[in-house]
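Assemble and predict.
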Amino acid sequence: MADPPPAPDIQPHTTPRWVKVFGIIAAVVILLVVIVLVTRPGGHGPSRHTGGLGGRPLPASVTDHGV
Amino acid sequence: MTMPPRLRKFALAAHLTVSVGWIGAVAAYMALDVAVATSQDTQTLRAAYLGMEVIARSVIVPLAFASVLTGLVMSLGTKWGLFRYYWVLISLLLTIVATVVLLVETQTISYFAAKAADPTTSSGDLRALGSTLVHSVGGTVVLLVILVLNLYKPHGMTRYGWRKQYEQRRKQRDQRTALVP
């Protein structure tokens, strides 16, 4: 829907510069997070600590003691 | 609906208390997170992981929900509204994102605490768990951004807010015109 014509006492709608800058920074941060999540071996969350499929290798103590 | 001044002040005090408290609780959590990231001592690691879970579950999560709730009350009960100004809208989105990431991260923290509480977990396993420092630092940055937005209230209305203001002013102008004989 088109904006209504501005009244004499109100400025037409514009997006402030700080919002545009904020949006660009947010987009870059989201992109970086997605890249890290996709490229990081073992994915994300507690599973990455269990040494399961694709996870961090189990510490030596675990294999030594057969836990 | 706009709140009466006394109620608005009370709601503002509550919102400030829980929001700043949230940042403070994250700072306390981060101190333990740094200890986890830097220490090799088994007792320190066990104590830190257990402490991190207590702080996250008993303090940070309740404060996050309280912050969202009081923020909604403040927005809807004042002239600012929820979708009228960019600073309010961005604060709301960031708060929701921070809360969702916190809830997901709490599962990881609980897993760490369970491993730390288990006496059969060896020192090597404890050291291999790692920290949540990236999340706690990232969360602190997001909370500080929200704090700055709420303090400075940078100008700028959303398209929705602009429409509402336009309709309101046109209505006032029409009323004034109707009153003139």
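Chain B is about 80% helix and 0% strand.
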